[in-house]
Design goal:
It is built from five helices and four strands; from the N terminus they run αααβαβαββ. By secondary structure, it is an alpha+beta fold. The chain has one domain (about 1-150): Nucleotidyltransferase, domain 5 (2-Layer Sandwich), CATH 3.30.420. A four-stranded mixed β-sheet has the order 2-1-4-3, with helices on both faces. Helix 2 (about 25-35) crosses helix 3 and helix 3 (about 40-60) packs across helix 4. The termini are far apart.
């Protein structure tokens, strides 16, 4: 999907990404952005913007204590998470710092962690109609980003 998004952009032919013989993934996108490719940086900024907006939406919808981003793209968490945290601090209706935004160290396994936490909470809340979405796969591609969340009972 990332490959198709990049190739459909107006200035794609001017980008170093245009010389890619294999599908464009986040590893290649970061490398191009690091080398000063403006289109790669634009796409990366847009992805981070979408992930940031999703984090705010999850906070407003579910009031979690933690949001875990995972997948291959989190190999560059130091470039992504500070921007997501900054966006959340400006736009979320939550106490500053009340929601931890972290990188999952196990990639796909962050989905399982979010699911386990949601299941544990659901078992404590039997009889309620409180529905939860334990994890949202943003893409099936390991280089993409996956977001898992867990809403832990607040004391």
């Amino acid at each position: 999907m990332l490959d198709a998004i990049c190739r459909e952009l107006k200035d794609f032919s001017k980008s170093t990404l245009a010389t890619a013989t294999e599908a464009i993934d986040f590893h290649r996108l970061f490398d191009a952005a690091d080398a000063g490719d403006a289109l790669a940086q634009e796409v990366l900024d847009r992805c981070i913007g979408v992930w940031s907006a999703l984090a705010v939406t999850l906070i407003h919808a579910y009031d979690p204590q933690i949001i875990v981003f995972g997948g291959g793209v989190m190999r560059r968490h130091e470039a992504i998470l500070p921007r997501i945290r900054e966006h959340v601090s400006r736009h979320a209706w939550a106490e500053p710092g009340s929601v931890k935004i972290v990188a999952g160290g196990a990639g796909v396994l962050c989905r399982a962690a979010g699911s386990v936490a949601a299941a544990a909470e659901a078992s404590m809340m039997r009889g309620s109609n409180y529905d939860k979405l334990p994890a949202i796969p943003v893409s099936d591609d390991d280089s993409a980003c996956r977001i898992g969340w867990a809403q832990l009972r607040r004391s």
